[in-house]
Amino acid sequence: MSTLSRPxxxxxxxxxxxxxxxxxxxxxxxxxxxxxxYAGDAVNLAGEEQAAxxxxxxxxxxxxxxxxxxxxxxxxxxxxxxxxRLVWDRWAAASVEIGTIFGILVLxxxxxxxxxxxxxxxxxxxxxxxxxxTVLIYIAYMLFRNGFDDAxxxxxxxxxxxMFAFLSVPLTYYSARLFRSIHPIVFDGGNEEAQxxxxxxxxxxxxxxxxxxxxxxxxxxxxxxxVRQFDFEARIDAIRERFDE
Amino acid sequence: xxxxSEVEGVTHREGGIAAYLRRVWVVAEKDVRAEMRSKEVxxxxxxxxxxxxxxFGLAFDLRVPRSELVVPGILWVIVLFAGVLGLNRSFGSxxxxxxxxxxxxAPVERSAIYLGKAAANLLYFLIVEALLVPALxxxxxxxxxxxxxLLGLLLGTIGYVGVGTLFAALTSRNRARETLLPVxxxxxxxPLFISGxxxxxxxxDGRATAEAWPWLVIIGLFDALVFAIAFLxxxxxxxxx
Amino acid sequence: MTxxxxxxxxxxxxxxxxxxxxxxxxxxxxxxxxxxxxxxxxNGSGKTTLLRIISALDRPDRGEVWLGPVxxxxxxxxxxxxxxxVAHAPMLYDRLTGSENLSFYARLYDLEKPxxxxxxxxxxxxxxxxxxxxxxxxxxxxTQRLAIARALLHDPPVVVLDEPDTxxxxxxxxxxxxxxxxxxxRSRAVVTTTHSIERAQVWGDRVFELRGGHLHQIGCPDRNTx
Lengths: 245, 241, 226
Description:
- The complex is a heterotrimer.
- Helices cover 77% and strands 0% of the residues of chain A.
- Chain A is mostly helical.
- Chain A has one domain.
- In chain A, α3 packs across α6 and α4 (86-118) packs antiparallel against α5 (126-146).
- In chain B, α2 (40-60) runs parallel beside α5.
- Chain B is globular and about 65 Å long.
- Mean pLDDT of chain B is 90; it is low at 5-9.
- By secondary structure, chain C is an alpha/beta fold.
- In chain C, a hairpin with a 2-residue loop joins β4 (62-67) and β5.
- The radius of gyration of chain C is 17 Å and the shape is globular.
- The chains are: A mainly alpha, B mainly alpha, C alpha/beta.
- Chains in contact: A-B, A-C, B-C.
């Protein structure tokens, strides 16, 4: 992990990264093919709902990538607080940035699917609530980082914030679930979560696995590039420093 | 001049837990004393709270069949937003006047400074809430003076102040501190907010008290985790002035 | 003045960076008990940064600072008891009165029976008459004198004065000069910055200029040539 972030020699990662990019790109082509062509239709759905169901693969795939971003931010922040090496901070920051993009994709793909399936773009389902709040925390994290000039102060304070975010997210989920479960349902009876459900056939299960792997690879490729970018920035700073002498 | 360095009489007392608590008290007392003269924080928060209650009243007048349906949300939204106003000043004023460095120069544990500040903030919040609850009673004819609601409000406020004071310290060094604090604070406070609204609704709807306990557990858990993490990380914030 | 065997402040190869800008490159010096070091330097030359490092408010990126035998990088909060700082900002609460400010800091430093000490300082610095007035009503000179009282409250062996003369009238500056001489005679180690070359010469036993992140001694045996 740390070798990629050593500011002195990021160039030697150029070729391996290029190979990895091609792999991730091919994997995403595979995801497209599997999700749109290979996977069978959901047998219990019809018409618009049946077509919309295919977004599910992209939805779950993005979800995996967003989850990796969340984990990356926690690991990177703890790593920084323990080791005090800026390398870890760069991994945390990059994870959040890439994770946010996928988090927004999760919310958008969910909303697009929910309209035909649930007849509403939005509902305060615990999972939706938690995902949205997590994305908002990520965005706050990025805004927060923006306001610091000193790299170490930025790393320290961002890591502290990430720790509180890490604590808050599961509690958000539990409280949102509790709120829904005992709150009287004022309008629109029935459990929304059950609506639009479908049985998973064998090709759909395989497609799901392909989507998860494909999106994870895409996430990693983007993450590596972002970290490399941060490494270059640090390198430029180091060079600029030498010019000051 | 000679008296300045007369070493006699310049001795200090021993440490220990009593000394620690004394320092927490000293910091809190200083804040409260200054606040009693300026009334800057409590005045702003209280004015905002009552104003917000009036605005909510106007917004929902004739639109909501029973005030009980919206008052739990109104209560917690106002507490949330009024809190941000007060917290901004907590370290903002110390940074503006350079006194934060004075605190950090003293041989005092960082967590004692944090706790002292949090204690002062807690007092401000409770004073404002003591005004807000009767204001809601008058404007919405909803009585929030029920033991469980008040307990939830107290525990929720403790957790809020715990995170808020720490975040105020975090943002006090940031270029965009005043605008940034709510953006950082509100998403992290969501569990507290949901639980507070849930708890208040349970009681106002007249449901079984047992239904209120899970909410209190979540709020209590939030409080415990917040202070645990704050104690672990408060030194990180101020390890360099 | 000649016995410099045990310096109270020892700075070794201190380097400090803000982003990619190196403010301090390689700063080393010692200050013995009873010695006053004057620092000159343009704005942004790193004087304040250096003083913050000595006061344990900031950490150097490289190098080490010792106060007496204690290295700051591994010192406990207790080390702060040995430093008194007068900075640009007076570090006073303007809603509180002069004596309230001092008694707040006295309690923060856990001083025993601070009232006598506070009275001493207020009288010496000619603030006793205004002790019950809020600091916000003080003039610049009075505020600065109170800031000095605050810094010396716990009678620290190491005293750091960051441009203590800014915005002061003649009378207060004379008081400062007297104070510096007094601290020297009481074997305190003093580091002070100022914009006035003249005052740097009057106050300091040695005068340095901080330029380009390095210290340059202005070793001028004849004080009148500068």
